[in-house]
Amino acid sequence: MKFYVASSFKNIDKVRYVSEQLKNKGYIHTYDWTKNKRASTFKELKQIGQKEKNAVIESDFIVILLPAGKSSHIELGIALGLNKKVILYSPNDQRNDFA
Q: What CATH architecture is 2-96?
């Protein structure tokens, strides 16, 4: 099975940890955005965004680690639109705060 992990740059260490744990279990990581630097141009942002979109499409499931970045919400929408399994993780129950 293939997976993708979405989050924010603040959570890079956690994303890498989750990804490594899943890969150690035999899952295939579709794209590791943590190897990127922050995009500094629209062209770079578009290229990264396309890679992230393709990774979500290719994945069997995605993991969203909260707090998540802006692109994570887009990736979540793509996953939901494609009826992918989504695992939403919040270390402080933020996923239940609708305010």
A: 3-Layer(aba) Sandwich (3.40)
